[in-house]
Amino acid sequence: MCLVCIAFASWVLRSSDPESADAWKAALLANVSALSAIQYLRHYVKKKTPPQDGP
């Protein structure tokens, strides 16, 4: 899921025309996709990391 969101964000930015008036929509969509992928990855890493005992 994480890689799909990042790949989609990358595709949106490469396929959009930076000179068009709607370029901000493509950038916003790419940023939201990338942020959700990062959030998902952080949540997944926290879930996988076993709790460590203190000293």
UniProtKB/TrEMBL annotation:
Protein name: Uncharacterized protein
Record's GO cellular component terms: cytoplasm; nucleus
A biological process from GO: response to muscle activity
Keywords attached to this entry: Signal
Highest taxon in the source lineage: Eukaryota
Signal peptide bounds: 1-18
Keyword Signal: yes
Transmembrane segments: none
